[in-house]
């Protein structure tokens, strides 16, 4: 009677025990499956970026835009009025100093020279006549002295001879001065005649021609420009530096130029002039910084726009690292950085 309930109770207990064991196992399996599929769907976070600290040169630059101009540029004008007879050069042509550039009408110049030559010859004849009369007056004065000593003449004749001598001496001075003036006039007319042949004052290239053959130029008030010569072997860079950065620029600092052309060539120079008078562009002030660069192959042309970098400070062989690596600031010029954990290095031992 008592045995049957005992067996029944044992069976119920056994079933409960198996349920207690199975339920945690199933729960663990479910949690594992969820973690597995969730980890497969979500990629692991990327590693933090790192950088290697290396030594190098640190350069501070001031960036600006610039424009090129020839270092030596000459506007050649006409010093006499006249008609342009011939232009002997073309744009871009290289010329040497003394080469003939433009010929002006020389007829009026030659006529002026001939008139000056005639006036000089006439004055030379007048001066010669006065010199002859002066010599005669001197002889007469000497004769009157001798005659007066021998009581062979009167004092009145002697005074007249002396007066004539003094008058002719003064006349000679006037005529000689006039003769010198005529010579100067002739030299001036001859010089102006040479001005009808306009020559190159320097070696260079023809970068502009302002006149045409047959055109009349008037040099009475201002010297009209006929053409422009430039030496392109050396170019001057005119960089516009903003007011906020001009205080960093000094004469002698290195400067680099990059052209905007397809080849983007680089040229180097040193600051030659910092102009103290600014240019106002809109509401901003800019100062012109000038420096020269070599242009041996004439690849650089006038009025080209270039990008300029002025080196205002440099530190050589210092530790370099990205700015983003700097953490909190801990002092003047000092920052905290985070170091990456060292990677163990495996070394082969003896075998």
Please characterize this protein's 3D structure.
This protein is an alpha+beta fold and 351 residues long. Among the domains are: 106-195; 230-335, Efflux pump adaptor protein, beta barrel domain (Elongation Factor Tu (Ef-tu), domain 3, Beta Barrel). The protein is built from 3 helices and 15 strands. The strands form 3 sheets. The protein has a 6-stranded antiparallel β-barrel. Strands 5-4-2-7 form a 4-stranded antiparallel β-sheet, with no helix packed on it. A hairpin with a 2-residue loop joins strand 11 and strand 12. It starts with a helix and ends in a 16-residue tail after the last strand.
Architecture blueprint of SSEs:
Blueprint: H1 3-41, E1 54-77, E2 82-87, E3 94-95, E4 100-104, H2 107-149, H3 155-194, E5 197-199, E6 204-209, E7 216-217, E8 225-242, E9 254-259, E10 266-274, E11 279-281, E12 284-294, E13 305-320, E14 329-331, E15 334-335
Antiparallel strand pairs: 1-8, 1-13, 2-4, 2-7, 3-6, 4-5, 6-8, 8-12, 9-10, 9-13, 10-12, 11-12, 14-15
Helix pairs in contact: 2-3
Distance between the termini: 81 Å
Strand order of the largest sheet: 1-8-12-10-9-13
Biggest sheet details: 6 strands, antiparallel, barrel
User: What is the residue-mean pLDDT, rounded to a whole number?
Assistant: 84
The CATH superfamily of the domain at 230-335 bears the name Efflux pump adaptor protein, beta barrel domain
Approximate shape: elongated
> Architecture of the domain at 230-335 in CATH?
Beta Barrel
Q: Into which percent range does the helicity of residues fall? A: 25-40%
CATH classification, class level of the domain at 230-335: Mainly Beta
SSE string, helices as H and strands as E: HEEEEHHEEEEEEEEEEE
Radius of gyration: 51 Å
Which runs of at least 5 residues are low in confidence (pLDDT < 50)?
Answer: 344-351
Strand tally is 15
């Amino acid at each position: 009677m008592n045995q049957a309930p005992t067996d029944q109770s044992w069976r119920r207990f056994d079933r409960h025990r198996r349920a207690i064991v199975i339920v945690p196992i199933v729960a663990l399996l479910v949690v594992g499956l969820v973690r597995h599929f969730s980890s497969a769907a979500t990629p692991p976070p990327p590693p933090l970026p790192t950088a290697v600290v290396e030594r190098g040169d640190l350069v501070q630059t001031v960036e600006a835009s610039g424009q090129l101009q020839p270092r030596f540029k000459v506007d050649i004008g006409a010093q006499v009025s006249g008609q342009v007879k011939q232009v002997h050069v073309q744009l871009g042509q290289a010329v040497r100093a003394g080469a003939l550039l433009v010929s002006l009408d020389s007829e009026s110049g030659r006529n002026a020279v001939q008139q000056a030559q005639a006036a000089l010859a006439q004055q030379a004849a007048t001066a010669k006549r006065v010199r002859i009369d002066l010599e005669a007056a001197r002889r007469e004065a000497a004769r009157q002295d001798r005659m007066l000593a021998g009581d062979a003449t009167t004092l009145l004749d002697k005074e007249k001879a002396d007066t004539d001598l003094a008058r002719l001496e003064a006349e000679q001075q006037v005529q000689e001065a006039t003769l010198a003036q005529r010579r100067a006039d002739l030299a001036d007319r001859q010089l102006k005649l040479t001005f009808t042949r306009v020559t190159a004052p320097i070696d260079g290239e023809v970068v502009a021609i302002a006149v045409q053959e047959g055109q009349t130029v008037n040099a009475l008030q201002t010297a009209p420009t006929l053409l422009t010569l430039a030496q392109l072997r050396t170019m001057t860079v005119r960089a516009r530096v903003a007011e906020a950065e001009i205080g960093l620029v000094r004469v002698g600092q290195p400067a680099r130029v990059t052209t905007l052309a397809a080849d983007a060539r680089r040229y180097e120079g040193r600051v030659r002039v910092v102009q103290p008078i600014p240019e106002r562009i809109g509401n901003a002030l800019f100062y012109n910084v000038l420096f020269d660069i070599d242009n041996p192959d004439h690849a650089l042309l006038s009025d080209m726009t270039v990008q300029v970098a002025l080196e205002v400070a440099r530190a050589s062989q210092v530790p370099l690292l990205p700015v983003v690596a700097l953490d909190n600031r801990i002092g003047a010029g000092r920052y905290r950085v985070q170091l990456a954990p060292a990677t163990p290095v495996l070394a082969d031992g003896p075998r």
